[in-house]
Amino acid sequence: MKAVVINYGVGNIYSIYNALKKVGFEVSIELEPKRHADIIVFPGVGTFKAVSTYMTRYVDVINELKKSGVAFLGICIGMQVMFEYGLEGGEKNKGLGWFKGYIDKIKTNSKLPRIGWDKIRYVNNEKCRPFLDFDGKYMYFMHSYTAYIDEYNNICFISEYGSAIIPSMILKDRVIGVQFHPEKSSKNGIEFLKRIAKWLKT
């Protein structure tokens, strides 16, 4: 299967490139979305403004590919830009609007940014059952902003950070978003990417 990792022009994307290759994907890094992909990956690098500015240039192509059945995986900021808008840095920037809700700073009594390993917990959601056995697994997080989601039926996993409940995996049609970094999550992250490959075949 073919995966395209989008290069927004910011940050290091080779860790997700290498992780996808490790689980058997044929991977390419592209400056713009490609029609030949089975899945397009929005990597977890950059700011909301930088990534949403990129998306603005290609939004018609991206939406057309989504409509045609191409799957998408958004990681960290790559997931966040799938929402309606973000408030990072005190300014409002438009997202893709694939999920209802917005992105803002984590409301917590714990230190930000959140960096490190945390357990993800399965939300009883039938469409997420292919990923059920990741309940209780530890994944690696690195963020200060989170999704405030309006559609709870699209949440698969949550995690806790201090007093905050963080949507940690979301799923809608052929679109997956994860707040954690599978490419930095060691064995659990590799197994998660393998599960995505299996899910793509269903």
UniProtKB/TrEMBL annotation:
Please state every residue range assigned to the domain named Glutamine amidotransferase.
4-189
Q: What is its EC number?
A: 4.3.2.10
Pathway named in the protein's UniProt entry: Amino-acid biosynthesis; L-histidine biosynthesis; L-histidine from 5-phospho-alpha-D-ribose 1-diphosphate: step 5/9
Which key words tag this protein in UniProt? Answer: Amino-acid biosynthesis, Glutamine amidotransferase, Histidine biosynthesis, Hydrolase, Lyase
- What is one process in the GO biological process aspect for this record? L-histidine biosynthetic process
Task: Write down the superkingdom of origin.
Answer: Archaea
Q: Which PROSITE patterns match?
A: GATASE_TYPE_1
- Main EC class of this protein? lyase
Q: Where is the active site?
A: C76, H181, E183
Q: Which reaction does this chain catalyze?
A: L-glutamine + H2O = L-glutamate + NH4(+); 5-[(5-phospho-1-deoxy-D-ribulos-1-ylimino)methylamino]-1-(5-phospho-beta-D-ribosyl)imidazole-4-carboxamide + L-glutamine = D-erythro-1-(imidazol-4-yl)glycerol 3-phosphate + 5-amino-1-(5-phospho-beta-D-ribosyl)imidazole-4-carboxamide + L-glutamate + H(+)
A GO molecular-function descriptor: glutaminase activity
- NCBIfam families associated with the record: IMP_synth_hisH (TIGR01855)
Q: How does it assemble?
A: Heterodimer of HisH and HisF.
Q: What is this protein called?
A: Imidazole glycerol phosphate synthase subunit HisH
Q: Upper taxonomic classification of the species? A: Archaea, Thermoproteota, Thermoprotei, Desulfurococcales, Desulfurococcaceae
